[in-house]
From TrEMBL:
Pfam families cross-referenced by the UniProt entry: Rhodanese
Residue stretches spanning the membrane: none
Ranges of residues in domain Rhodanese: 23-118
Gene3D superfamilies: Rhodanese-like domain
Range of residues in the leader sequence: none
Protein name per its UniProtKB record: Sulfurtransferase
InterPro entries per record: GlpE_sulfurtransferase (IPR050229), Rhodanese-like_dom (IPR001763), Rhodanese-like_dom_sf (IPR036873)
Length: 118
């Protein structure tokens, strides 16, 4: 009945698995929340802040606005507040050709021991 509320059922990577990969520079981490959300709670250490509305422009390797980190060919992990928006972002990034994982929400990152930047 409420399938639209479900997050990605098969993320392929947990926040706990992503933490050492981000620290080692082996994966690109993207926070897709809005700037006001990030200002209120901080973001995962090492994450790029790219709100959902800017994702197509900033993450598509064919776009002149694409960030250099997203032209590297490295896998990408995305998160939001709960995992729902990052599930949608995962699909968008996959269509752009990225290997992408939804690691859920910022709370998942924190619960796994991930550091927060303010």
């Amino acid at each position: 009945m409420f399938n639209f509320l479900r997050t990605d059922p098969t993320p392929g990577m947990t926040a706990a698995q992503a933490i050492p990969l981000v620290e080692a520079g082996e994966i690109v981490l993207i926070d897709i929340r809005e700037p006001m959300e990030i200002a209120m709670s901080g973001k995962a250490k090492g994450a790029l802040a790219i709100p959902t509305a800017a994702l197509a422009m900033r993450a598509d390797p064919r776009s002149p606005e694409c960030l250099a980190e997203l032209k590297s060919g490295k896998p990408v992990a995305v998160y939001c507040a709960s995992g729902a928006r990052s599930s949608m972002a995962k699909g968008m990034l996959a269509r752009m050709g990225h290997e992408v994982y939804n690691i859920g929400g910022l709370a998942h990152w924190q619960q796994a021991g991930g550091a927060i930047e303010r």
